Amino acid sequence: MTVRHIVGASVPRKEGWDKVTGAARYVDDMVLPGMLHGATVRSTIGRGKIKQIHFGPGVDWNEYVVVSAKDIPGKNCISLILDDQPCLASEFVNHPEEPILLLAHPDRPKLRKAVEAVSIEYDPLPALHTIEESERQSTIIWGSDNTFKTFLVEKGDVDAVWKEAAHIVEGEYLTGAQEQLYIENNGVIAAFGPKSGVTVWGSLQCPYYVHKALMTLFALPEEKVRVVQMETGGAFGGKEEYPSMIAGHAALLAMKSGRPVKIVYDRMEDMAATTKRHPSRTRHRTAVDRHGRILGGEIEFTIDGGAYATLSSVVLSRGTIHAGGPYYWPNVRIRTKAVATNTPPHGAFRGFGAPQSLFAMERHMDRIAQVVGISPVEVRRRNFLKSGQTTTTEQTIKENIDLDRLLKRALELSDYAAKKKRFAEKNKAGTHRKGIGIAAFLHGAGFTGSGERYLNSLVGAEAGADGTVRVLVSSAEFGQGTNTVLCQIAAEALGLPYENVSIAQPDTTVVPNSGPTVASRTAMIVGKLVQSAARGIKETLTKTGLLHDDYSPEQFCAGCKEYIATHGALKSYARYQAPPDVYWDDEKYRGEAYAAFAWAVYVAEVTVDLTTYSVTVDDFVALQEVGRVLHPVLAEGQITGGVAQAIGFALYENVVWQDGRMMNNQMTNYIMPASMDLPPIRVFFEENGNVHGAHGAKGIGELPMDGPAPAIVNAVEDATGVRFCSIPLLPEDLFETVRPEFNEQVVFPLARGTS
Amino acid sequence: MNPSPAASTKCEFSFTVNGEAKNVLAHPMERLLEVLRNDLGLTGAKEGCGEGECGSCSVLLDDMLVNSCLIPIAQANGTSVVTIEGMSAHSLMKPLQESFLECGGAQCGICTPGMILAAAHLLDKKLDPTLADIREGLAGNLCRCTGYMQIFEAVAKAARGRAAP
Ligand code: FES
Ligand code: FES
Predict the structure, then answer these.
(1) ipTM, 2 decimals?
(2) How far apart are CA B148 and CA A483, in angstroms?
């Protein structure tokens, strides 16, 4: 029997049974015959010239395979956007933990000793560790001005607004680095054959990024590089660009040794050496009228990119476009830049720049409310974007949005008004202060501006003689539900039961390049292509007369069988086509930044304990409009998971830096939320519909990362009266500013170095 | 730090794994997790941190929930160890696995074997756990994907299923 409406139903996760039985195969579960283990010798200083490498005594170096930059057959870089990051440092190092040498040995425990026995002499050079140091340019560490990228967005005439303003509100907001902390560390296995070239199996998000990087590194043609994604134990952006590095390392060792090589980082190495969320600084200067309406403003957004360009320009782009929040700015000037420091490159992490600039925007809205003397609710209501208005990049909001209604519903769900009143009364006495805060925000789905056109994604579907259909995409499953959602879409398009559709393991010899699995683009962009490819199969069968309009799975099967017997494989492909009405100007940073935005209002309720100076989140309401919800259980899981990470970002997760190196690179002292730390996270959806994606779905994965931090800090201010402007907000910060003995607290922004 | 195997020679250790008697040759300080994964091919227990923080390496050792990354094999000598692979016989296993699937308790799945073991261990001790019991029972198992809510729901559902057959 044909199952109708698979989309919208919570069908079982495709690879779910393997996961709950422990049978799912992650890269560290895989062993190849004759396999060696690989390890990395890394720089111990932040910046300098490599003078000499000593292989110390006590180790029989003949047992080890040693690879240096000299062994690289192609270009010594991790090819991504600017190709400025070496795979192995040869002359200079630019950050602590930069890879210099690679070692391989059959016995993994023996590697640790060998890594420790290598000592490297350097001529140290001055290093930079914060945004401010980088801006001062006392030394130039990258390009001509330590700047990877700048953007300028200009709308209207900002210079004219200041004299009309009833109030000018200024603020500076800081966010810290954050570790992705997927529970499975980075890992790959590589094999090399003179004929077959390089094969890599790994924990990764973007098989074709790794593919491209390996082609450059080995100077090999497309067909001599194969990348296979294994089950991936969490990624969150942290396995977007870094896997190209570790894959290159394992492949170099495999080539030199002639044997397969596994490199799996332990937690300490993973935390110290791989990417994190970019630390940021945002400055707002806003002109408002006496009712609290924004007349215009200037926003300056700066992120610390670390030592190499990697993805910073794209992270900056998303942060730039989201900097104005879900508000109408008649006039605005947004100046942004990504600067270089001598820390390991910061990289992709869920939200990708938006959580940083939106933290600032949403804290600043509360500030505007205070200055004008209206409530946080009212200031947002008066400034919300409406359908037909334009964003800061002058994108006209064409879809039907009603942020007022969204806000109203979030306030009802959280019982905001009653709580606000009750807390104000209760806070007059006692050692516990309660507060409630809101954040309203948006998140663009898909690549920015012309990005999707440039990606030119291709998706396939293949029918078998048994009447089952296999989806062919390079989009990876790492927990978010790619496998399930894409199969649902294909099944629905074909009118087949969900069980009759499967998805190929991402393997560059089997699947086409459907683009990277990032930017909340999979459900919306890739989903739509899967739908077209699946329909293509149906059309082929109807055109050849093997299928009629209303068919059963058995008839579909018979059609496939006959088609394949006469014509061979039954495949269909669909390529991305940019909607004709999309306009984007990369020079002026103006136009339709995203095909669609998701919208949300979150409400956080907190308790501040004036004895321990800790903040507890007691209740959390997450209400969003994400288009059609394709799979309610998966969608809810994306939101609760994102909110939990963002609570960590706001209150717990503090990267302690010393000279560009993470000092607390252990789960013992870098604290992520555990089961006891989280409030009930209550998730709600509004459905409005949107024409772009398959079945009207917009992106969902990153959105929940954006709102919790400002909602929580707004709530802490509501509870204590202290204006905190920097996250993570730790007990020591509270200790310094909130003293029970004061009834009137000191109010000043708290500055912590961003790096 | 992980206790690294001593340079000393390997010794023989015997213990029961998932009901079967096993003899392994290992350095006394080698971790149970490595013996299970590398020598016995039981890869359901995962190494998330190697220092007792994340619980992804959870196994039952003489009916106690332990982090196998912290147990030197010498300490496991003579014990009975149960891993996720050996739990299929447990009466709670199927209901737990099904409720994890239905409620969204497994996303990337890397924490899931440990999480399900911890949940089964909790339900063995508590017939009708409250939400607070569940939160506490899973406190040693970190999950970065789910935000735990759907895991709590899955465990509660499995418990309810048992209470009202
Ligand atoms: S690996 Fe054992 S507790 Fe994390
Ligand atoms: S499901 Fe990914 S860590 Fe728990």
Answers:
(1) 0.95
(2) 21
